[in-house]
Design a protein that fits this description.
35% helix; alpha+beta; 2 domains; 5-stranded antiparallel beta sheet
Length: 150
Amino acid sequence: MKKEQQFYLVDFSILPEAIKKTIRVKELLKDGSCASINEAVHKVNMSRSAYYKYKDHVASADDDKGDRVVVLLIIMQDDMAVFGRILRRIAREKQEILSVTRTKISEKLYSSVITLKTKESADDIESLYESLKEMKGIQSLTMKLGGEFK
């Protein structure tokens, strides 16, 4: 059974030194002050092993959420107008399209895999999913977001 993660907001001043240094290293890398992890850990006088021990477990509370990747698998009618409506709907939501593939799978059907990069919440992406799902000409729609299939 997988243990559920728990998160807390903690005042920076009471954190152990290793956690503080890990945060500083991540900030140096993020703002471009240091070009490599080696350079950043050296600058804050921290071992690489200590950095790697904590790096995935600390983040600023006011960090905006990182980009998420959304993958849409669509089975649609063999009609370029349907494909065009899908792309226009995604563009209207101001989502960044990373890749698009379109393949003929039968005499009358095409499959398309569209990969998006977004900062939107799961609820906002859910509304895009619902609007695409209801679109005329779409036979099937599967969305992968954060490891969950819809």
